[in-house]
Specification:
It is a single chain. By secondary structure, the protein is mostly beta strands. It contains no helices and twelve strands. It is 0% helix and 60% strand. The strands form two sheets. Strands 2, 4, 5, 6, 7, 10, 11 and 12 form an eight-stranded mixed beta sheet that branches. A hairpin with a 6-residue loop joins strand 5 and strand 6.
Length: 124
Amino acid sequence: QVQLVESGGGLVQAGGSLKLSCAASGTIYSINDMRWYRQAPGKERELVALIRRGGSTDTADSVKGRFTISRDNAKNTVYLQMNSLKPEDTAVYYCYADTVIYWTGINRATGDFWGQGTQVTVSS
């Protein structure tokens, strides 16, 4: 199976920075898009940033110019560098791996996977 493990969340003051990491484990042959979502209390989960296998990216307008997504295909890891953090960035951040081709132990399979989430809290 495939697991996504996030790290790097925490408490930071407004204007500060954090870097989130999400590593996919398992016998993985390829991953299509990798994404970061976030969900604030009482709000719907929203897409923050996306990076395609080839490296092109899309970023939500609310974080453009402050957040940067990157990935290391050799390590099956995606990162989110968050600068100039604001209190409204407070949320649980989730990583997502799209169209993962992996070995189950018996055969190849394809699936999409979510991380468990990591809390980011920005104080004013």
